Amino acid sequence: SPATIFWSLQIALGEEIGWRGYALPRAAQRLGWLGAALLVGVLWALWYLPQFLVPGTNLYGEPFPVFLLIIVLYDSTIFTCLYARTAGRRGGGALLPVILLRWAQGVWLEALPTPSDALLPAAAALVFVAGFAFVTMPRPLLRRGATDSEVMRPI
Questions:
Q1: Where does residue 123 rank: exposed (0-12), middle (13-18), buried (19+ CB within 10 A)?
Q2: Dist CA 71 CA 92 (whole Å)
Q3: What is the chain's alpha carbon radius of gyration, rounded to the nearest angstrom?
Q4: Phi, psi of 34 (to 5 degrees)
Q5: Tens digit of pLDDT for each residue in 96-155?
Q6: Out of 37, 56, 58, 108, which residue is the most buried by the measure of CB atoms under 10 Å away?
Q7: Of all residues in the chain, what percent carry a pLDDT higher than 90?
Q8: Residue 99 near residue 12, CB atoms below 8 Å
Q9: Which residue range is the domain that position 89 belongs to?
Q10: Could you tell me if 142 and 134 are in contact, meaning their C-beta atoms sit under 8 angstroms apart?
Q11: How many domains does the chain have?
C-alpha cells in the first residue's frame, strides 16, 4: 500500500542516518568494519526489544530474542558491507544505497510476511549470506584503520 511505502521510507531514512551515518563510522575507527557491524547490530536489536515487551506494539508476542538478533546482525553485516565498499576519500560511505536497500526490505517484509515455521531456515540462510559477504569483502575493510586507498577499490 502507499502508506507502507511511505512509512518504510521514513523508517529507513531515520534509522540509517543514525546507525550507518553516525554510529557505524565511529565504531569502525576503533573496531574495524566487522566489529562495528556486530556492535551496531546488537544495539539495533536492543532498540527493537521494547516492541516485543509492550502490549499493542506490532512485535508484541512474537518470538523475539534469537530470531531478531540473527536478522538484525545479518542486516547490520550486509548494510556495513555496502556502506564500507562505498566509503570515499574522507572515510564516509554512501548512505543512499543503504537507505534504498533498507526501504525495499521494509516494504518486502510488510508485503510478504513470513510464516513462523519458516523462521529458523530463513535465519540460517541469512547467516550464510552475511558470512559470504564478509568472506568476499576485501581484507583491508576488516581491519581497523584501513587506508582510503585500500577502501576505494571498485565493487
A1: middle
A2: 25
A3: 16
A4: -65, -50
A5: 888 988 888 888 777 766 555 566 666 666 666 666 666 666 555 555 555 444 443 433
A6: 37
A7: 15
A8: yes
A9: 2-151
A10: yes
A11: 1
